[in-house]
Structures are given as C-alpha cells and as structure tokens.
Design a protein that fits this description.
CBS-domain; alpha/beta; 2 domains; elongated
Length: 322
C-alpha cells in the first residue's frame, strides 16, 4: 500500500463514518423525543453494553454525568452478579447493541423490567430481541461499516456515540444546565478554572504591581519592568491608570529613538489601555487577551473608578490550572 493509497483509504473511512452520522440526523424523530421525556424523570441513568458498544456506553454515561444527569456504566455481566442492586424504578436504562441480539443484554433485560426501569435501546436492528423488549428504540442502523470486510464496528460505534451525545446535550438543555454548572463539575480543568476562578484570584497586586509616574524617565520604566518581572509597567497618575508600557513598547521605542535620555514614560506608553475588572472570570480575561487582531499577554486590573488594582498575565491564567 503506497502513501497515497493509505491517505485515500483514510478518507474513504472518514466519509463512510460521516455519512452514517448524517443519515442518523435525518432519522431522528418522535422516538428521540420520548427518550428525552423518560430521561428527564430519571433519578439515575444506567448505560449498558458489551465489547465496543460497552466502551461507547461508558463514554455516554460519563457525558451524561458531566452535564447534569447522574449516570453510570452498568456492565451487563456484573449487573447479573449483584451490580443491578443499585437500580430502582426511579431510574432509566439505556442499552447499546449493534446486532440487537447481544446475549448478555438479552439476559439482563428481564431483570431491568422486573425492577421497573424503562428501557431505551440504541441498536442497529430495529426488529431484534432487544428492540422488541425496549420502551423506546433509537435506530442506529448503518448501511456499512468502514472496514473493508464490513465487520469491524466503526461506522456503527460512531453513530451510537453521536446519538448518545445528542441525548446528553439535548437533555442538558432541557434541564437548563448552564456552562457555570458545567464548570463546577470540572474544577481541575482549564475550562473549569476559567469559569470559576476570578482575575482577583491570580493577579499580581500590592507591591508586586510594576508602577511609575508619567513623568518618570524611560530608563526608570525599563528598570521597573525588569525589577517586577511581569513584562510591563503601569503608568499611574496618583492611583489612576493612564497607560501601560510593555516589553514590546520598550523594544519599539529603542528602535525609534536614537537618544532615550529625554524620553519619559508618557512618551512611550500606550494610553487608555485595554483593562479588566477584578471580578471578571479568567475565561473573560483570556478572551479579552486573545480575541483581537494583535493578541496581548497582560492586562491591567482596574476598579470602576479607574484605580489600578493589579496586573494579570496570560501566564498567570495558564499556571492556575497546573
């Protein structure tokens, strides 16, 4: 197989899987809406499958839990050896089976029904045993797997995963679960930190703030930048911010002026710089730095009255997650 043949084969595989998801989108209908209604009333959602479907079931359970719907992965064999005891008639089961006849799931279904659980089946066979036992059937049939033998679960697992994501995310919106709720479930990730920590939690403040007066010499500005090590100096008129000088401003000024001795901070500062308030979330500060034509790496932190309260750098935001 040549390099070009490998590339073409990869493209063929991706096209097959993309087409499977596209067909699935066209087939979503009333059964999906009924599934959401069942899930809205669930105390706990048990997601079950075995083999490749079991791995997809684990991911669906994890996604559900992270977006406001408590869920667990229930291994069908372990369920029949005691794990089913965690479930009650206030719960809902989602079972995944490509063939619709997975023996371990077929064995489990009567005991789920015995406990009063509604069953949602994500299956590639709408006429199989599992579909006939389910309260709601979500048809995840695919025309072909992506492998050359039409055997290795590939397009079918992608379709099941996409359908699980659709369930989780529609359910999330139906429950009114917000991005702030999501952040509280992810306190150690970058997203969670950005949506829970505030600028005041990570900014340099007090004596750590690099500061000079507008009348200070350019040399004094360079010394203060070097001494405080934040890559900038705030130019203050009393306590009020009137400008900022960054490392970049220093380099540009050295290129522009042959003699820096008469130059003052006011001559080289950026007046009325972009600022942030101390109660802003880190995500807002990061967006303020990055979503501009020329990205900036540092923001002065000011009060509504314009008083300089601190400095926050992009490095401080990134470091807060480590």
């Amino acid at each position: 197989m040549t390099a070009n043949e490998r590339i073409e084969e990869a493209r063929r595989i991706l096209r097959i899987e993309a087409a499977a998801v596209a067909r699935l989108a066209d087939s979503v209908g009333e059964s999906f809406a009924r599934a959401i209604e069942l899930l809205l009333g669930a105390r706990l959602i048990a997601v079950s499958g075995i083999g490749k479907s079991g791995i997809i079931a684990q991911k669906i359970a994890s996604t559900l839990s992270s977006v406001g719907s408590p869920a667990l992965f229930l291994h069908p064999v372990e369920a029949l050896h005691g794990d089913i005891g965690v479930l009650s008639d206030r719960d809902v089961a989602i079972v995944l089976s490509r063939s619709g006849t997975t023996a371990e799931l077929v064995a489990l279904l009567p005991y789920l029904k015995q406990r009063g659980l509604p069953i949602i089946a994500i299956t590639g066979s709408a006429n199989g045993h599992i579909a006939s036992a389910a309260d709601v059937v979500l048809d995840a049939h695919v025309e072909q797997e992506a492998c050359p033998w039409d055997a290795v679960p590939s397009a079918s697992t992608t379709a099941a995963l996409a359908l699980g994501d659709a369930l989780a995310l529609v359910l999330m919106q139906a429950k009114g679960f917000t991005i702030s709720d999501y952040a509280r479930s992810h306190p150690m990730g970058q997203l969670g930190r950005n949506l829970t920590l505030r600028v005041s939690d990570v900014m340099a403040k007090g004596d750590a703030i690099p500061r000079i007066a507008p009348s200070a010499s350019f040399r004094e500005a360079i010394i203060e930048i070097s001494r405080k090590g934040l890559g900038c100096v705030c130019v203050l008129d009393g306590e009020k911010l009137c400008g900022i000088i960054t490392d970049g401003d220093v380099r540009r000024s050295l290129e522009r002026y042959e003699d820096i001795r008469p130059i003052t901070a006011a001559d080289v500062m950026t007046p009325n710089p972009i600022t942030i308030h101390p109660e802003a979330l880190l995500g807002e500060a990061l967006a303020t730095m990055e979503r501009r034509q020329r990205q900036i790496g540092v923001l002065p932190v000011v009060s509504p009255e314009g008083k300089c309260l601190g400095v926050v750098r992009i490095h401080d935001i990134i470091r807060s997650t480590l």
